[in-house]
Amino acid sequence: MKIEALKELGFEMIVEEKGEIFHGYACDLLSEVMGRAKPDTVWFTVQSHINIIAVAVITGIRAIVLCNGHDYDEGTIERSKKEGISLFKTELNTFEAIKKLCNVMQDEIQG
């Protein structure tokens, strides 16, 4: 799935970068994400500080969706632009946001 397709799901794009995602991961514990997330992943979290960008770079995560209506701070936004990580946000909680993504991906698979 192209990263920009996350906009079509209603996620607000904060930083746009091109690329594709093939996996999803939901977690708020950074060490867990570093140890388990795959490259080319979209990561759903409520963490918004600059350290999430470092985790994304280390793991190869391509996009982050910030849930529960939280906002990114300016430092996080600027670092994501520098590192090429797409940022999105949503008012939905993590479960609802992932459910939305899974429904679309399931439709694509069933064709």
Spell out the blueprint of helices and strands.
Layout: E1 12-15, E2 23-26, H1 30-36, E3 41-45, H2 51-59, E4 63-66, H3 74-83, E5 86-89, H4 94-110
Please provide a written account of the structure.
With 111 residues, the chain is of the alpha/beta class. It has a single domain (3-88), classed as 3-Layer(aba) Sandwich (Udp-n-acetylmuramoylalanyl-d-glutamate--2,6- Diaminopimelate Ligase, Chain: A, domain 1), CATH 3.40.1390.20. It is 39% helix and 19% strand. The chain has helices at 30-36, 51-59, 74-83, 94-110; strands at residues 12-15, 23-26, 41-45, 63-66, 86-89. The chain has a 5-stranded mixed sheet with strand order 1-5-4-3-2. Helix 2 packs parallel to helix 3. The longest helix is centred in the last third of the chain and has 17 residues, at 94-110. The model has no long low-confidence stretch (mean pLDDT 94).
Assign the CATH class. Alpha Beta
The fold-level CATH name is: Udp-n-acetylmuramoylalanyl-d-glutamate--2,6- Diaminopimelate Ligase, Chain: A, domain 1
| SS strand fraction | 15-25%
- As a whole number of angstroms, the C-alpha radius of gyration is 13 Å
Q: What string, H for helix and E for strand, traces the elements in order?
A: EEHEHEHEH
- Low-pLDDT parts are none
Overall number of strands: 5
Count of discrete alpha- or pi-helical segments spanning 4 or more residues: 4
N→C terminal distance: 14 Å
Q: Give average pLDDT, whole number.
A: 94
Q: Which homologous superfamily in CATH is the superfamily?
A: HprK N-terminal domain-like
Question: What is the level-2 CATH architecture name?
Answer: 3-Layer(aba) Sandwich
Biggest sheet, open or closed, and with what strands and sense?
5 strands, mixed
The structural class is alpha/beta
Question: How many structural domains does the protein architecture include?
Answer: 1
Sheet with the most strands: spatial strand order: 1-5-4-3-2
